[in-house]
Amino acid sequence: MAHQARVNSVVDSLTKAPRNIQFPTTKDGRLQSTSEIFGQNVFSLKEMSKMLPKPVYKNFIKQLKGNETLDKVTADAIAHAVKVWAIQRNASHFTHWFQPLNDSTAEKHDSFLTMKSNFVDGFEEVTAIDTFSGSQLLQSEPDASSFPSGGMRTTFEARGYTVWDTKSPMFIQDGPHGTSILYVPSVFISYNGEALDEKSVLLRSAETLNKVAVEVLNMIEPKDDEDHPRTKSVFATLGTEQEYFLIDRALYTLRPDLKITGRTLLGGLPPRHQQLEDHYFGKIPTRVLAAISEAEFELARLGVPIKTRHNEVAPAQFEVAPIFEEAMLAVDHNMLTMDVLHRVAHRHKLKVLFHEKPFRGVNGSGKHCNWSLSTDQGDNLLDPSSSPETNLRFLIFLVATLKAVYDHGDLLRAGIASASNDHRLGAHEAPPGIISAFLGSQLNEVLNAVEEGRPVNYEATGTQLQHVRVSGTVLDLKVATLPSIARDLTDRNRTSPFAFTGNKFEFRAVGSKQSVSFPVTLLNSAVASTLMEMRDALAKQKGDKPIASKDDQLAVIREFIKKSKDIRFEGDNYSDEWVQEAARRGLPNIVKSPDAFGRLLRAENAAMLRKTGVFSEAELQSRYHILIEKYCKDVMIEAQTLLTMVTQQVLPAAFQYRRDLAEAASYMANIGVQSSPEVNLLNQLTPVVADLQAEINSLRATLDKIISIDDLEVLAKEFSQQVLGSMNKVRDLADELERHVSDKLWPLPKYTELFLNI
């Protein structure tokens, strides 16, 4: 029966009719371009300006800039306008959409329906109307005790509030039966105002970063003039590359481990997987391309600027990447991207897997966060320009970022720690637990030259490649029909967890299923803290002068280069030599998440997060508690799932195969035929089965022993050191049985089917 279910699923996937959707067309029958449908489901500033009275719209813009508080008249006007706009698009409900501390989003739908009483001839007459007030727009009240709070809320303290995040535009999404729902992006806070979500702290970090970055710029830039207006705001930009797997949904339903934990707890590699290096950037399977195209269509309507799609390295692995946006909006758009991919995949009978390591032995998935800083004038502060050694503004923000990573690298490691990401970090496609920064040979030489007070030796950084001659920053390909191409100032280092890639840093270590809010919040906070040091150093250096001179700036830049030099590494982060070198430099090598979580509370990190106003002490303790408790729960769920699968599926299949072999051997002996082949197989199989039974008994005993531990820190280390090790032993033995047991008896879809059946 189990084998037949696998066969039926494969046959079904090969014979099912493809899903077709009708993309919108113009009047002349042409398919509408992405730009024509982009943002049509978003209540944008442009849409708002058309529907609001001019004074109301002006008041809202002042509020967005932080110059005014949103008053009731403005809130009521916006609520009415967005209700009209949404109902015109078939909206029946609205929801405050927020990001609780569980790496997902949450929503509670409320109808626009309201009952209005009128008295006619002394009798009450009730009329149904659609309303949406300013107070309904501004806040709602979900149950705060039902979300992770780390002890800040208890069951009998249930009140919490969602509050409209005015910087993120409202939008509609399709609902059932042709209806739609209005989404109001929101933050989630407790009754006492503590952050119970990912977004609140991100907004705080953005405000602090903006304030101190502008202060630094005001110390190095001349006063306002028409040609060079002074910078009034600075914000982090973010482009989040999202990796994921797509597998057949019918086969997925036959894998309890995938359904419950998001990863395969059993399963051996097939003879062919990714070793031929033929999947990366290969032709996207037709069924997958259809699903991605539909998802991109929906995301375009939601104003999510998806730019790139391609096959990733592992079989059945893919990636989408957006155009850069302000970080706060990019975070919302990444969560929307994950949600839309999930929903659209279901329509195509596919299942999307966001787990960092759903399949052992092949590449896992990350969420590469491309981070930079931009001004309200449209300038990228991390753009080195053609002469980075003389671009002092660039150097100031570059070395400030480097020193932030040096001072708080362990905090950034804590920001990407989870039970799932532990399976990926340090593997062949992801950086190790040592946080370092890569600049590339040219920028590295620039910083060395500035530190030493000498001219830059660009000749020392030139790379001579076979059949390629480097001439300055242009590559001559020595083929007359091929154009010359510009070469970037930096190469790319895919082993670095924090690499400079031209005009931004790529934080590669972030896990594929986590919200990027938390790691970006920590990065913003660390950079803001270092910019405070930079501001104070510049003030001391320039003295009474209104603007820091070039010499003043260079003196401070040199100081920060020296202090942060140990964080820079240009080599292979996977190598054993780097582990030894990092230890000599004093850089922490945090391998397991339970050790990383504690770095949130390290005195220097906690003080920085409080100083920048991003976390209170209670919120920081809460976050630590939530992370370590989730780690324990995740591993416990995996261990119990593994025990169930082995006991109820793997061992029965092995027992049946042993019985079949024994019966065959007995039959052969009775008819006088040599039965040694069957007996030999039995003798190979029996010790594996016995060892597996012993290991699951050991795993069960370990779980029974540690479950009574009250100290979460001790419990997490037990899960990390004892339970995961025991689970790996169980898996190795179960995978050995998969190689021996007859295929027709094996109950679980194998990697070959999961990888190739799309």
What does this 3D model show about the protein?
Residues 92-193 form the GS beta-grasp domain. The protein has 758 residues and is of the alpha+beta class. Among the domains are: 37-136 and 163-192, no CATH class; 632-756, Four Helix Bundle (Hemerythrin (Met), subunit A) (Up-down Bundle). The chain contains 22 helices and 21 strands. The strands form four sheets. Strands 10, 11, 12, 13, 14, 15, 16, 20 and 21 form a nine-stranded mixed β-sheet that branches. A hairpin with a 2-residue loop joins strand 4 (113-120) and strand 5. Helix 13 crosses helix 15. The longest helix is centred in the C-terminal third of the chain and has 54 residues, at 617-670. It starts with a helix and ends with a helix.
Write the topology of this structure.
Elements: H1 2-15, H2 34-37, E1 42-43, H3 45-51, H4 54-64, H5 72-88, E2 91-97, E3 109-111, E4 113-120, E5 123-130, H6 134-138, E6 139-140, E7 160-164, E8 170-174, E9 180-190, H7 199-220, E10 234-248, H8 249-252, H9 256-261, H10 286-301, E11 306-311, E12 317-322, E13 325-326, H11 327-347, E14 350-353, E15 367-375, H12 392-415, E16 437-438, H13 441-452, E17 469-471, E18 474-476, E19 485-486, E20 498-500, E21 505-507, H14 517-542, H15 550-564, H16 576-585, H17 593-597, H18 603-611, H19 617-670, H20 676-706, H21 712-740, H22 751-756
Parallel strand pairs: 2-9, 16-20
Antiparallel strand pairs: 1-8, 2-3, 4-5, 6-7, 7-9, 8-9, 10-12, 10-13, 10-14, 10-15, 11-12, 15-21, 17-18, 18-19, 20-21
Helix pairs in contact: 4-5, 7-14, 10-11, 12-14, 12-15, 13-15, 14-15, 19-20, 19-21, 20-21
